[in-house]
Specification:
Blueprint (H helix, E strand, L loop, with lengths): L2 H21 L6 H5 L21 H6 L3 E5 L2 E2 L4 E2 L9 H5 L22 E7 L3 E6 L5 E6 L2 E3 L1 H7 L7 E6 L2 E7 L7 E2 H9 L4 H8 L4 E4 H8 L1
Parallel strand pairs: 3-10
Antiparallel strand pairs: 1-2, 1-11, 4-9, 5-6, 6-7, 8-9
Length: 224
């Protein structure tokens, strides 16, 4: 059971590696992708962090497996903790390239200790002006400037872009919900789903419905 969410994450990491290789136009043999993977760098709070030390078995047990969409490596983001549901890919990305990234209910996430976090910054003339369907900020006005919720989040190093603003004692209090960008697979929910008996395949299908699980070697063979 413990390795089920790690196996799901291993498939996502490998998919991202292979997708980046294809995007760069670099041809590699499947063993170059499946043979390593514990050290997968990811920028900021979302890129691929170091997988846990006990994930090596999960990596080997899913060797060569990736998720594909229309025959190509899929865009398969994951994050730490949702606000109770994931976000719609079309709203976040502004295109229809990833229709499988839909809003998925994650009710257990709201019970996590990290669900609510509060920080205080210097007071400012700011207000949230737009939210997406899931409740994440898509636009915030700061003075005469407008910025996206993600830009605001990165500027003030917030846990997520689902936040509220409140003036308090001469400061601006920012309360966030969830941890991460909210798109794709919630790691917290993946662990809870595994505890409830769901396999890593079922976890992946829930968050990336419509994507196919394939072997890297099979795709390489078809492109040669």
């Amino acid at each position: 059971m413990k390795r089920r969410p790690l196996k799901a994450q291993a498939v996502l990491v490998r998919t991202d590696i292979y997708r980046q290789i294809q995007t760069a136009g670099t041809r590699r043999r499947s063993r170059e992708i499946s043979g390593t993977g514990r050290r997968c760098r990811k920028p900021g709070r979302e890129g691929w962090n170091l997988l846990p030390g006990n994930s090596q078995d999960a990596w080997q047990e899913t060797e060569g497996q990736i998720l594909t969409w229309q025959g190509q490596p899929a865009y398969v983001p994951f994050f730490r903790l949702s606000i109770g549901c994931t976000r719609d890919g079309k709203e976040v990305l502004g295109n229809e390239d990833c229709p499988y990234l839909q809003i998925r209910e994650c009710p257990d996430d709201v019970e996590a200790e990290e669900q609510l976090q509060t920080v205080e910054v210097d007071d400012m003339d700011a207000e949230v002006t737009a939210l997406d369907t899931a409740g994440y900020v898509t636009n915030v006005r700061v003075g005469q400037e407008n910025m996206s919720g993600e830009e605001f989040r990165k500027k003030y190093e917030l846990a997520s872009s689902c936040f509220t603003l409140q003036r308090y004692n001469g400061k601006m209090r920012i309360t966030t919900r969830g941890v991460g960008h909210g798109l794709g697979m919630s790691q917290y929910s993946a662990h809870r789903m595994a505890k409830d008996g769901q396999t890593y395949d079922e976890i992946l299908n829930y968050f990336f419905e419509g994507c196919e699980q394939k072997e890297v070697a099979e795709i390489l063979q078809n492109t040669e």
